[in-house]
Write a structure and sequence with these properties.
single chain; 424 residues; mainly alpha; 71% helix
């Protein structure tokens, strides 16, 4: 019994090590120390990746990993292409490092997905979210010179443990919906942690407000809407007919059209303009000055923004007061770094994740079964005005891989479970 608990503790520490590393270079000031930290982070990723493979071999689960990867091959083409982009990268050292992180993310994400089901992954992420919220609160209240942004046009926004308020806001948005999932589940079950999850949920909402991130505000509202729809589907699934889905999507499209016609009024509510704080001119400049020059292959996996001249030129074009180091759009950053070929290959994986998530939700028996859709909705919304998938490390890519492997392992026909049973 003691040995079993010891091994489980080590396994949990390994998982939290993955989560921490996937965020490591976006913690406060770490981004500016990349040359100093890259070697240490690379060594840490290598050690933990090798350790996860060793555990899979020891537990006879490596064959399960290989089988699931074969079934979900849609991630492999992007992995291969981004690796080849090192050959033409404008900064091959950075591209190599980022590719090694991506490779490790797929291995370690698969490891987590094989070892844990969706509910357990949500619990693990929730605990990590508590850690992020706790440490960020310490930074805000006790080390405000780090935890609160006070420079140029950003005054008083909470950035917590991260280097920018938008990243902090979007991270807490994700953590907030995890807390809400746990709160709703505890309310309808024998779980006695309602007060804990309720308190964390309310505090995280307050924290989101203090980040002054409009992207976080809107993403939070949309995720709550998706969760409410999930509850409605669970409650009335047997009574819902195809006509109801048609009416819903028709109303949804109409609402989007009305919103489009009133964008000025909508953004004025948040004291913002329709150019998304200079993002639209930045994106137009990127297409005209850079993307059109290397449309197919791009500038090398995650290498573009490590060229100083690119930062200065885009800063001047967008008329921004600080150097620009990301495109503030995850999909445009993939495009500029890997070209249209890389973006298409990534979208094959990304759209495949949407299909898998929808199929999984269609068979869901509880709210946790809708988590993959909530995750995919989050990654889409968050990447419209922030580069979340690759430029700011691979935490959410790691989560997507976790979910992909976990769904594949648990979805009937369960030949992966059969392989595991034979192995053990």
């Amino acid at each position: 019994m003691l040995l079993s608990n010891y091994r489980r503790t080590l396994d949990l520490l390994l998982v939290f090590g993955f989560f921490f590393l996937a965020n490591s270079l976006v913690f406060a000031y770490a981004f500016w120390l990349v040359p100093t930290l890259v070697l240490l982070v690379t060594i840490a990723w290598s050690v933990l990746t090798v350790l996860s493979v060793w555990i899979l071999i020891r537990k006879n689960l490596l064959s399960v990993f290989v089988e699931i990867l074969k079934q979900n091959w849609i991630i492999v083409p992007f992995l291969i292409f981004s690796g080849f982009s090192i050959l033409w990268s404008v900064n091959w050292q950075i591209s190599l490092y980022r590719w090694l992180v991506l490779f490790s993310t797929i291995i370690t994400g698969g490891y987590i997905g094989i070892r844990y089901d969706i509910k357990e992954i949500i619990k693990l992420l929730s605990v990590f979210g508590i850690y992020i919220l706790f440490v960020s609160s310490i930074f805000v209240f006790f080390i405000p010179e780090i935890g609160i942004m006070n420079y140029s046009i950003i005054q008083g926004a909470w950035s917590g443990v991260y280097w920018h308020k938008n990243h902090m806001g979007l991270m807490v948005t994700f953590v907030n919906i995890l807390f809400l999932l746990n709160l709703v589940n505890s309310w309808s079950s024998t779980d006695q942690n309602r007060f804990l999850w309720g308190s964390l949920y309310l505090y995280s909402l307050f924290f989101i407000y203090q980040t002054d991130s409009v992207a976080a505000y809107l993403t939070t509202v949309c995720l709550h809407g998706v969760l409410l729809l999930a509850l409605a589907v669970l409650r009335f699934r047997e009574k819902i007919q195809k006509i109801h889905y048609f009416i819903f999507f028709a109303v949804f499209l109409l609402a989007l059209f009305i919103l489009y016609l009133n964008l000025d009024v909508f953004f004025a509510i948040f004291n913002r303009k329709t150019n998304l704080t200079g993002r639209v001119p930045l994106w137009m400049y990127l297409f005209a000055a850079y993307i059109n020059k290397r449309p197919l292959l791009g500038y090398g996996f995650n290498a573009f923004w490590y060229i100083k001249s690119h930062q200065v030129a885009t800063q001047q074009a967008a008329r921004y007061v600080d150097p620009i180091i990301i495109a503030d759009n995850g999909f445009i950053d993939i495009l500029v770094n890997t070209g249209y070929i890389g973006l298409i290959l990534f979208l094959i994986f990304y759209l495949g994740m949407w299909v898998i998530s929808v199929k999984y939700a269609s068979q869901a028996k509880d709210l946790f079964g809708f988590f993959p859709i909530i995750l995919m909705t989050y990654t889409f919304l968050a990447n419209i005005s922030w580069s979340l998938l690759f430029e700011n490390e691979g935490f959410f890519m790691l989560i997507m891989i976790c979910i992909l492997f976990s769904i594949s392992r648990s979805t009937p026909p369960n030949r992966f479970r059969m392989i595991e049973n034979k192995a053990t």
